[in-house]
Structures are given as C-alpha cells and as structure tokens.
Amino acid sequence: FFFKQKTAYEISTRDWSSDVCSSDLHWRKLRPGTVVNNELIWRRHLLPVFGGMKVAEIQQRHVADWFHRASLERPVRANRCLEVLSKAMNLAELWELRPAGSNPCVRLSANTERKRRRYLTGEELQRLMVALDGFAAAGVRWRFAQLVRLLLVTGRRVSEVMCARWDWLQGTVLLVPAEAHKTGQDGSDRRVHLPPAAMAILQELRQRSNSQWIIAGDGDGHLVGYWRMWDQLLEQAGISNLRIHDLRHNFASLGVSAGLSLPQIGGLLGHASPQTTARYAHLVDEAAAAAAALVAAQIKA
C-alpha cells in the first residue's frame, strides 16, 4: 500500500514497478475481501495519522500515541489497524525502507478481546426484517439491505458475498474461487448451495442491476464499506451490540435449533477445521437439555 500512496510517503524517487519485492507481488497474495478491508483501514484510520510521514520516520512513540487514542474509541478496531500497520512495517524492512528490526508496533500490547457469542432473539430478528423492508427503495442502500438478507439466509462471510460476481453463480450453486474465500489455501473452490430464499433475493438483484458484481457499489466495483449503513440499520431496528459477522453465528444457532449436527453446520459455514465449529457445541448441549426437559414435562403431565 505504501507504493499506492507515493506522494503521502515521498518515496516516488525509486522505480518500484520492476523490483522483485514490489508491493504488487504482496498485494496479489491477499484475498479480495482482505484487500478491501486493508484499503479501508489505511484510508480511514492510518493515512490521516501517518500519511504525511516518511516510512522511516514512524517511531514507537508515534504509534503508541495513536493506538492509545484509537483504543479509547474502538478497542477491537484499533487492534485490527495495529495488525495492518505492523505488517506494513515488516514489509518496509524487507524492502529496505526501514532498518532491520525497527518495527515500531512490536512492543505494543493489543487490547484484550473477549470471544463473544451474540445471537439475535426472535423479536430482534423480526425488528431487523422490518428495518430491512424500509431501509431503502433503490440504490446502494437497497443493495446493502439485500446483502444483509443474503447473509441471514446463507451464513456466509460478508466478504464472500460482497465481493461475489454473477459469473460465480451456477444454477443454485455459488462457486467461490479459492482466492476469494478464507479457507482456500489448498487451492479448492467452495460450492455454496443456495436455498430458495437466497435465490429469490438474487433474482431481484439481477433484475435491477447490469453490473458484473452481485452487490454493486456506487461506481464500477462491488460494494465497499458498509459500517455506516450497518449502524443506521441497527438504529432503525432498535438493536445494539451486534456485528454484521454475528449474522453468521445466528445462522449456526438456527441450524442447531433445526436439529443439525455440528459437522453439518461446519459444512454449511465452510469451516476447514472441526475445532472451528466446536464453538457452537454449547448450543447443541442447550438444545439437548431443552429437548430432555420437554420430554420429561410430557411424561409428568
């Protein structure tokens, strides 16, 4: 990203385009969703603070002061920004823009993050659906509402849907290329079987768009950035403390309620490891306890 911001970092005197260690080689290794997220982090949170400094000038005191202020506002977001900045500093050392071993981020301790399990209650889900119905009649806000609907009924990661193209759709299957999904390191594409509810949403999107992207943005690309619209949607629905990624957890919880096993849920969510799906084991236990209580109550009656 440094080389996409040559004026900000005043490093345009060297021709990096032919260098074997150019930034583009690193950029191509990243998934599209990661690229989008990193660009947003740079543009919104890092460049306003560090954009006027040379790469070699950034010291630990600069990063520590910024990280403290950012952590007061959004501690988890500050952690993600610190991770991106630290990776950039490591690359700067590799590309000889900084002395070796000078990463100013390495001695900073990240904010504590609690693993959270947030699920929508039945009442919250109803309010969210009402808010989606009235969110917007057209434009990018309407397409964002359809993105949320797709996440609700498929349990996909937001980047897999937000960056999806129409040519990925094959009948009722969304074929996500290996480079576009989180667990595609083995080079395999992911086949996502879409339910009728998802197909109905896609049909309406297709009728109202001629873009190559399923969730088109304002310009020629796909939707980029959704946090402000997500906050507005939650405000209209009267819901607090809910991340868009929690819709994926909610999908898993509804799967447990429907009687699906953990391996089945893992398959639907596209987990590469059973350990990842094991986070939902408590839901299975709760469902089993509730079923046992129901049977016992019927016997007693």
In whole angstroms, the N-to-C terminal distance is 68 Å
Give, in order, the helices and strands: HHHHHHHHEEEHHHHHH
General form:
globular
Helix content: 40-55%
Helix/strand-derived category reads mainly alpha
**Helical stretch count?**
14
β content, as a range?
under 5%
Oligomer: single chain
Sheet with the most strands? 3 strands, antiparallel
Low-confidence parts: 1-21
What does this structure look like?
The protein is 54% helix and 3% strand. It is mainly alpha-helical. Strands 1-2-3 form a three-stranded antiparallel β-sheet, with no helix packed on it. A hairpin with a 2-residue loop joins strand 1 and strand 2. The longest helix has 20 residues, at 75-94. The chain starts with 5 loop residues before the first helix and ends with a helix. Residues 1-21 have low confidence and may be disordered.
Short description:
With 301 residues, the chain is mainly alpha-helical.
Helix and strand arrangement:
Elements lengths: L5 H4 L13 H6 L3 H19 L9 H14 L1 H20 L27 H12 L5 H16 L3 H5 L6 E2 L2 E4 L13 E4 L2 H12 L19 H11 L8 H12 L4 H8 L4 H4 L3 H20 L1
Antiparallel strand pairs: 1-2, 2-3
Helix pairs in contact: 3-5, 4-5, 6-10, 7-9, 7-11
List the keywords.
301 residues; mainly alpha; three-stranded antiparallel sheet; 14 helices; 3 strands; disordered N terminus
